[in-house]
Backbone:
DNA sequence: ATGCTCCACCCAATCGTTTGCGCCAATCGT
DNA sequence: ACGATTGGCGCAAACGATTGGGTGGAGCAT
């Protein structure tokens, strides 16, 4: 089909048909419905037939150059190898594809310099907008003046300044878990809090500690431990918390990965989950339920966040007013959280 | 700085300087080194100064249109939410960035129709080449004639027809594990084999069973169970294998996720890992070591695969002859694999 | 003075589309 | 029968960059 001479262009089609390229362009861009007023019904048919006989695909570079619209969006994440992020991205990709957009996705490793560099890079690619999933609470990287001319929305993490974002209601998620721990009778609790620059971690932590404070059991500062979001960080933080003289009976790790690290720490200390120690994570990743001791976690709508972020961005690009959205979390109680046990237990 | 009138173009710079755009283009494209022969030293300086005072970034659409080179590569994976894949992609992205390329990455969910559609999509975006990480052994989706005109390489999975690929030496990895099980004295072993269309699973399986056959202990067909690559699949397959009358003493799951599913199954059956049952995975994902019972696994160089795939693709694009590469795996023995125990145990 | 070589630039075509405008013929109204 | 519509297309100018081919003048040797 596409055999002949190089890629099929509008001009190629026009010449074969003895028409002008502008006519062909109008027809091919016009609505598929019978009547635009692009050309006569007969001509329309001939053009359409030849176009897909030849497998014509418009050259996006030419189109973008002319229209100043690239149908490209840039997507920034700390690291795609984290399942939560990857799942959000799946939602982004799904919706973007549905809307005829392509995405440039890139890992910034939460490094401010890389963030700036990558923002510059996608902007250089002339994206129509960007979806930022690695924002730091202070919004530093977003202050780049180059961003003034390109619309963007946040996803996954929000920012203090209140830029439009789609996130899980992390604060509420933290409260849910606190509620759960309280109902189980845990009074001495701790938080593996993740990175202080990520709203996911801080909001979950705040929701949790707020609820505990309201219950008259404020969580002391030394029982809130910041750490990296991975297993290694969770492990270290948990180790410190659990070797404390006054060991907490329940630990909330602000994501499942950190929780798994905490499991490792508990194992090393000879503590059995659900018996000696209650442990909960966040995000309800597919692993949580399969672990030897199934992990209590808070389910957050990840792919949905991604889909909504795309739609939000589209509205921003269209110049419509937009507001942030938060999606409701859901508690998934499992065996890793049980009633507290007395200090006599070893 | 970029304040004034719209985006900075070559023409804008040329006009301000009273030069011709072609001169500016040559200077800005020329080597940074003092002496091309683009223009006088003085002119070069003036152009460079103004260009970065104004924050000039060439419009990639215009460049691509003219040069027929997009510096874009398409990347196909089954699903980015699998950590192995995501890690390979990190390698791809790192190297691509280093080489001045941008990537379109997309999830095909191992669905042939989606694969074809996505290939068409990235081709439509006029990528310079593609990196395919979701190939099926039969190479069906690669037969698309549209692919004839665009170079591509495989990563992660190879294909029967031998198209250039960068993979882990999965066969060798399977053998390593068989060796390990043999040295521990396991004679009745089983394989959670993953999807039959993915070379990763089949090669690991074949390596494993070959080694056992060589040891005079062929693994019967009913002890090799195909399943999806996720925890659910691993769980189901393991459940079937472990409820067999003649229960195997050791199980090799061809990836860590399936292994975790198998852990769930073992847990449900009351089997303790490393005591009643030896279990091993593949890929040595960061979780493996942190699990309550640390999981024996085979480490495969994932990011390195990605980096090499990019370099291989670049050579292909340049028209150089290329050959497939396999990277050596490495056994990481941990507590989940222990010596076999008699049938009396419960 | 003449012819040559270089240097430092400029010219203009081109990549493939989009889009405001204009033109010609057929049709319509009266 | 004649001016006014209108349908159906063609024209040409963009969009921003690259690149093969000039061109004019300075510098040099003869």
Residues:
């Amino acid at each position: 089909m596409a055999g002949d001479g190089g890629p099929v262009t509008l001009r190629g089609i026009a010449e074969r048909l003895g028409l002008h390229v502008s006519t062909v362009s109008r027809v091919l861009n016009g609505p598929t419905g019978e009547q635009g007023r692009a050309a006569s019904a007969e001509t329309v048919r001939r053009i359409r037939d030849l176009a897909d006989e030849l497998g014509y695909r418009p050259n996006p570079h030419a189109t973008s150059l002319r229209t100043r619209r690239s149908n490209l969006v840039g997507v920034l994440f700390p690291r795609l190898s984290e399942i939560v992020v990857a799942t959000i991205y799946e939602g982004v990709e799904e919706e973007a594809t549905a809307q005829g957009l392509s995405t440039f996705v890139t890992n910034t490793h939460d490094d401010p310099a890389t963030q700036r560099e990558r923002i510059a890079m996608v902007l250089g690619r002339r994206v129509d907008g960007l979806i930022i999933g690695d924002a730091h609470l202070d919004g530093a990287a977003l202050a780049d003046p180059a961003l003034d001319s390109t619309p963007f929305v946040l996803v996954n993490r929000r920012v203090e300044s209140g830029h439009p974002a789609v996130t899980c209601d992390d604060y509420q998620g933290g409260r849910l878990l606190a509620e759960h721990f309280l109902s189980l009778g845990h009074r001495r609790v701790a938080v593996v809090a993740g990175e202080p620059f990520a709203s996911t971690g801080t909001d979950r932590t705040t929701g949790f500690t707020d609820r505990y404070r309201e219950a008259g059991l404020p969580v002391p500062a030394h029982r809130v431990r910041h750490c990296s979001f991975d297993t290694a960080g969770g492990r270290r933080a948990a180790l410190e918390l659990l070797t404390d003289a006054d060991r907490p009976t329940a630990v909330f790790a602000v994501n499942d990965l950190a929780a798994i690290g905490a499991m490792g720490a508990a194992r090393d200390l000879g503590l059995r989950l659900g018996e000696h120690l209650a442990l909960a994570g966040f995000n309800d990743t597919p692993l949580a339920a399969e672990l030897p001791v199934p992990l209590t976690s808070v389910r957050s709508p990840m792919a949905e966040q991604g889909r909504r972020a795309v739609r939000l961005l589209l509205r921003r690009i269209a110049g419509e007013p937009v507001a942030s959205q938060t999606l409701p979390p859901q508690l998934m109680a499992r065996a890793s959280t049980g009633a507290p046990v007395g200090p006599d237990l070893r």
Notes: The longest helix of chain B spans residues 83-98. Chain B has three domains: 10-58, 71-168+302-328, 170-299. DSSP finds eleven helices and twelve strands in chain B. Residues 19-23, 26, 37-40, 43, 62, 64-68 of chain B lie near DNA strand C (CB under 10 Å from a C1').
